[in-house]
Design goal:
The radius of gyration is 29 Å and the shape is elongated. The two termini are 33 Å apart. The protein has three domains: 94 residues, Rossmann fold (3-Layer(aba) Sandwich), CATH 3.40.50; 219 residues, TIM Barrel (Alpha-Beta Barrel), CATH 3.20.20; 133 residues, no CATH class. By secondary structure, the chain is an alpha/beta fold. Helices cover 35% and strands 15% of the residues.
């Protein structure tokens, strides 16, 4: 017998929920029960406990994704599982289509070297702070970047301090003396040796990263490879990635050729020449470059966060490597795995059409403003009117909040968010911050995000004409 699911909802969402389920034509049986509240998003576990008198023979109960409270305790009390569905009603089809199939993003194979490019100019505490930040964002190796003609008297001390905190360390320099000092201090990797400086590898235990003796000279790289193989040494090779219009395409071909010649070698790609030297959002650049790495079996990258526009490069690379590993493992394109690299746009920014919003607005019987977006613009409505615009300034004169500073401030914030979402093609949900993928670090909540919290972010507003004092919440959502 197919599973029987009980959907709990509110008055405003009931009709939409029934229509979505009818269109979905699910294999399971279902019952839709309106719990006697207007806004489904304001449902709580205690409210369900008080109002739900019959589970209709269901095998499990599905409640709105923003439902607050302890659902485990409620499940025990009702004797059947109570689970949260998606936060947005129109995400139900995807919710059921992907249930139990979310790719595992805990796994990856690519190692991220994160370079502190100005290490000689930082004191020891500054180096350690930067290293901790990089590790938090996903870096596996901290690369100490040496600067030309710049003394680095505390190089050895920096290597030892990083090692004492459990970091893997590489030293990156064009000066052979820096590489030798770093290796003797205990660095794990040295960037970069060529056939002319292989003698350093004989002096230290650090794993060398090999580059061509002259730019693009793969023959010299092959000779260095052969020499270290003869010594029985581990090593990594880097054919060098060039910036766009300065050999970028040719350098990609070099990586392909090195992999063709040496199917078993460990290879590193320095992605900073693209992320730092291209004024485009770096999340997409990282995704493409790490896609190349995934196809060619390149399992190390060197990245930097020097330019302000590249300040999330490590975090982006960390997520990209997880997405691409999952995609390759599942033998699928890297789509519908995780949305964290899509900072500006979203897959389904407008869950409701203008016609559906019109229909919903006719069900509203209270003075609280709802704000929704559709391809046509930003819509704000309550029982007294429905207004649409693409510029929030056009809406303000129609809202009647000129003498209510707190309410005006709240609506200004929400309408600004809605306009940004509409312009970019992002998902907007009233009273919730816009999502920016891995670009914005969301602070960990002080409490369970599904525990109870105050119902809204508005200040107390003056009574709406014809309504009792205090019946003015502006944050209720369908």
């Amino acid at each position: 017998m197919p599973e029987h699911i009980l959907f709990l909802t509110g008055k405003l969402a009931e009709r939409q929920l029934r229509r979505i389920l009818e269109e979905l034509q699910p294999e399971f049986r279902y019952t839709v029960h309106q719990l006697g509240l207007t806004v489904a998003a304001l449902m709580t576990a205690d409210m369900i406990r008080r109002r739900l008198k019959d589970t209709f023979g269901a095998d499990r109960v599905l409640v709105p994704g923003r439902c607050r409270g302890d659902l485990e305790a409620l499940s025990a009390e009702l004797g059947i599982p109570v689970e949260r569905g998606p936060a947005e009603l129109h995400d139900l089809p995807e919710f059921f289509g992907k249930a139990g199939q979310k790719p595992d993003l805990s796994r990856y194979e690519l190692r991220i070297f994160a370079e502190i490019v100005d290490a000689p100019q930082l004191d020891l505490d500054g180096i350690l702070r930067r290293a901790r930040d990089y590790r938090k964002d996903g870096a596996d190796v901290i690369d100490l970047g040496c600067l030309p003609e710049t003394p680095f008297p505390h190089l050895e001390e920096a290597v030892r301090a990083l090692k004492a905190e459990g970091f893997a360390v590489s030293v990156d320099s064009l000066e052979q003396d820096d590489l030798l000092r770093g290796g003797r201090a205990g660095a794990d990797y040295l960037l970069s040796l060529s056939e002319d400086s292989l003698w350093i590898a004989d002096q230290v235990a650090a794993t060398p990263i090999l580059i061509p003796a002259r730019h693009g000279d793969l023959a010299s790289l092959d000779r260095a490879i052969a020499a270290l193989r003869a010594r029985g040494r581990d090593f990594i090779v880097d054919p060098i990635l060039d910036p766009i219009h300065f050999g970028f395409t040719e350098s990609i071909l070099r990586y392909h050729e090195v992999r063709r010649r040496h199917p078993d070698l460990e290879i590193l790609m320095g992605v900073g020449n693209l992320t730092e030297l291209t004024h485009a959002d770096t999340a997409g650049i990282n995704a493409i470059l790490l896609g190349i790495c995934s196809e060619l079996g390149i399992r190390q990258i060197l990245t930097t966060q020097v330019s302000p526009h590249a300040r999330r490069a490590v975090r982006e690379a960390d997520l990209a490597r997880r997405i691409l590993y999952a995609a390759r493992t599942l033998n699928r394109v890297p789509k519908h795995i995780d949305d964290g690299l899509m900072a500006l746009h979203e897959r389904a920014p407008f869950p409701l059409s203008r016609a559906e919003i019109d229909e919903l607005s006719r069900e509203v019987k209270d003075p609280s403003y709802r704000i929704l977006i559709s391809p046509e613009g930003v819509h704000i409505f309550n029982r007294d009117g429905f207004h649409t615009a693409t510029d929030p300034f056009e809406l303000f004169p129609k809202l009647g909040v000129e003498k209510d500073g707190g309410h005006a401030f709240y609506l200004g914030v929400e309408l600004a968010r809605a306009q940004i979402a509409w312009q970019l093609g992002k998902r907007y949900s009233q009273d919730e911050p816009l999502g920016w993928g891995c670009q914005v670090e969301i602070a960990e909540p002080a409490a369970d995000p599904h525990a109870y919290k105050p119902a809204g972010s508005t200040l107390q507003k003056a009574p709406h004409p014809g309504t009792p004092e205090g019946d003015t919440r502006a944050d209720q959502r369908p």
